[in-house]
């Protein structure tokens, strides 16, 4: 059995790593250009899938079987094919200075 202090250390190291990546992404000017976008996109998908795995997909898979795959397939489809829609939403948000989803919905 794994000791509690090992689990806490691994969890804190993982969270620290995520914060380090976010800090590096904010400070590094190269990632703001076009060539850094796929990296940010992939990291976004990885964090989303990791959090869903941690918070419920394992339990969902044991109770509902293969139905848990919808949790992953939805975001993957959006990331793969939803670029035109996401680009349009970003363009509208920037042109109208919208900073939240509520403001976006209200402006529509």
Give structural notes.
The mean pLDDT is 79. It is extended and about 55 Å long. It has two domains: 32 residues; 73 residues, no CATH class. The chain has 108 residues and is mainly alpha-helical. Helix content is 78%, strand content 0%. Helix 2 packs antiparallel against helix 3.
Number of domains: 2
Helical segment count: 5
Listing every helix as H and every strand as E from the N terminus to the C terminus, the arrangement reads: HHHHH
Q: Measure the end-to-end span.
A: 54 Å
Shape: extended
The main sheet comes to: none
Overall pLDDT metric: 79
Oligomer: single chain
| Portion in strands | under 5%
Number of strands: 0
Rg, Cα atoms, Å: 18 Å
Q: What structural class is derived from the secondary structure elements?
A: mainly alpha
Sequence stretches where pLDDT stays below 50 over 5 or more residues? none
Give the helix proportion (percent range): over 70%
How is the topology of this model organized?
Blueprint: H1 4-27, H2 37-64, H3 70-81, H4 83-95, H5 101-107
Provide keyphrases for this structure.
5 helices, extended, 108 residues, mainly alpha
Summarize the structure.
This protein has 108 residues and is mainly α. Helices cover 78% and strands 0% of the residues.
